[in-house]
């Protein structure tokens, strides 16, 4: 389950992320309860579960956008460089190119290097001819690729993706999945949510199954798809809703 | 001036004859109001954004106060500035009373709450959309401020226009602190008040039409710029 990073450049270990007895409450409602989970190594973890299971919440907690009501979320070691790609890409009201140079500026890249790096990233994600186009008038698939290009420039050690393909057509989904594989090949740990079983089969090394704010199962993808340990997981795989 | 005492004719004649006194008045009106808007924007835009980005005790009170001050009567703002700048007042030694500078200060105080409060509303909406992404990128709050203001720019043009409209239309504040001195502090609105009280209603109305035309022109310009940018940037 704990694969080493594939590239020698990132051979140094990325700190494991440990969630210990994490709960999140909002207005008296428990959205996540008593979740203990450790995500480590350089694999692709896919968080699955029905709508409202708490997948997005888990991503926001892990990325540090949200503090738990109780329990702890901690990196066991140096906090790695992270990036997150959201379900609906949030792009600034500027050109595609400016969206990327902005991220580089925030990252602290010297001014004279930003443009070249940004153009290279646009090219890498097949957006080179859209550089001057306002980001907000791009199609959904192009916007998501731009969000991936922005994440690419941040050179994250851990990349979180929250349902990155749920609003896209098949061609755009394929582009996003290829990008995820690209990131992984570069030595980035992937943590993504999905409710698409086929996508999880294609991408996952490791599966986390949530339901109603509880951790049901955390196993290697092979085991999960061939011989799930819990009845809930078996039902989920068959597309039944036993809960 | 023509013999026909019709307000439209008078307005037209004033403009077409390039009436020097009129141009002085119009020029001063624009200079005072545009300076006031610029200064109020320099303070009000960051202030509105800061109210969104930083939580501090009493923030709710500040927001309520700003909203209430949007309805501040111009004469009250004028009176306040008058008391500050008059010879016996705390800022009396600068001798600013009855100068265009005093009018700028009064109008700025009048529209600062408008610009700050409306900016806060615009930025708050955008911040709700951007918050997670900016935090994810590791953007500091100080840096979020220019980012949010720039990305809210289309809405903020309207905010600045609202401020300019209020500044150029008010008469109470500039009358009190400016004094309507011919050639020095006389602006469109105070000239209209004067002509009305002298009974020269057609001239007053003519001046009013010129004022309306000017404000319309400026608004049309800003609208076109905004629409063009909106269409191009989505």
Automatic annotation (TrEMBL), chain A:
UniProt entry keywords in alphabetical sequence: ATP-binding, Cell membrane, Membrane, Nucleotide-binding, Transport
SUPFAM superfamilies: P-loop containing nucleoside triphosphate hydrolases
Subcellular location per the Swiss-Prot or TrEMBL entry: Cell inner membrane
MF term (GO), any: ATP hydrolysis activity
Keyword ATP-binding: yes
Highest taxon above the source species: Bacteria
UniProt-listed InterPro entries: AAA+_ATPase, ABC_transporter-like_ATP-bd, ABC_transporter-like_CS, MetN_ABC_transporter-like, P-loop_NTPase
Membrane protein topology class: Peripheral membrane protein
Domain ABC transporter: 17-237
GO-annotated cellular components: plasma membrane
Protein family (similarity comment): Belongs to the ABC transporter superfamily.
Name of protein: ABC transporter ATP-binding protein
Automatic annotation (TrEMBL), chain B:
Subcellular location: Cell membrane
BP GO terms, sorted: transmembrane transport
Topology term for the membrane: Multi-pass membrane protein
Keyword Transmembrane among UniProt keywords: yes
Keywords: Membrane, Transmembrane, Transmembrane helix
Domain ABC transmembrane type-1 span(s) in chain numbering: 26-222
Record bears the keyword NADP: no
Membrane-spanning ranges: 6-27, 34-56, 62-85, 97-118, 203-225
A Gene Ontology cellular-component term: plasma membrane
Domain of life: Bacteria
Stored PANTHER family: PERMEASE COMPONENT OF TUNGSTATE ABC TRANSPORTER
Protein name from the UniProt record: ABC transporter permease
Annotated organism of origin: Halomonas urumqiensis
């Amino acid at each position: 389950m704990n694969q080493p990073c594939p590239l020698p450049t990132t051979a140094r270990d990325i700190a494991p992320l440990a969630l210990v007895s994490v709960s999140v409450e909002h207005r008296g409602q428990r959205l996540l309860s008593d979740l203990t989970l450790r995500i480590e190594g350089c694999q692709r973890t896919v968080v699955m579960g029905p709508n409202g299971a708490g997948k997005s919440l888990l991503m926001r907690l892990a990325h540090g956008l949200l503090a738990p009501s109780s329990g702890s979320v901690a990196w066991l070691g140096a906090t790695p460089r992270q990036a997150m790609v959201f379900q609906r890409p949030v792009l600034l009201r500027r050109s595609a190119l400016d969206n990327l140079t902005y991220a580089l500026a925030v990252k602290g890249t010297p001014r004279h290097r930003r443009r070249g790096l940004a153009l290279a990233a646009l090219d890498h994600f097949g957006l080179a001819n859209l550089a001057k186009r306002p980001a907000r008038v791009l199609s959904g698939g192009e916007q998501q690729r731009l969000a991936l290009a922005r994440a690419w420039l941040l050179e994250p050690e851990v990349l979180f993706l929250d349902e990155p393909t749920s609003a896209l057509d098949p061609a755009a989904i394929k582009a996003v999945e290829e990008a995820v594989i690209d990131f992984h090949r570069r030595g980035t740990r992937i943590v993504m949510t999905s409710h698409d079983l086929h996508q999880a089969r294609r991408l996952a090394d490791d599966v986390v199954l949530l339901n109603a704010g509880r951790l049901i199962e955390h196993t290697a993808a092979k085991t999960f798809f061939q011989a799930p340990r819990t009845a809930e997981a078996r039902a989920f795989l068959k597309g039944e809703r036993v809960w | 001036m023509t013999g026909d005492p019709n307000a439209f004719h008078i307005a037209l004649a004033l403009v077409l004859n390039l009436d020097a006194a009129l141009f002085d008045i119009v020029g001063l009106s624009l200079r005072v109001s545009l300076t006031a808007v610029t200064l109020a924007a320099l303070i009000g835009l960051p202030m509105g954004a800061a109210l969104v980005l930083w939580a501090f005790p009493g923030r709710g009170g500040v927001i309520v106060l700003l909203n209430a001050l949007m309805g501040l009567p111009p004469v009250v703002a004028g009176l306040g500035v008058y008391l500050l700048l008059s010879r016996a007042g705390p800022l009396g030694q600068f001798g600013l009373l009855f100068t265009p500078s005093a009018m700028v200060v009064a109008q700025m105080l009048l529209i600062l709450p408008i610009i700050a409060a409306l900016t806060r509303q615009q930025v708050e909406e955008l911040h709700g959309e951007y918050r997670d992404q900016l935090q994810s990128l590791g953007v500091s709050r100080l840096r979020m401020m220019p980012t949010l203001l720039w990305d809210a720019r289309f809405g903020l043009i309207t905010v600045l226009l609202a401020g300019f409209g209020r500044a150029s239309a008010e008469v109470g504040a500039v009358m009190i602190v400016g004094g309507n001195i011919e050639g020095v502090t006389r602006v469109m609105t105070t000239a209209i008040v004067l002509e009305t009280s002298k009974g020269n209603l057609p001239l007053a109305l003519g001046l009013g039409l010129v004022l309306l035309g000017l404000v319309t022109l400026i608004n049309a310009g800003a609208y076109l710029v905004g629409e063009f940018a909106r269409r191009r940037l989505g």
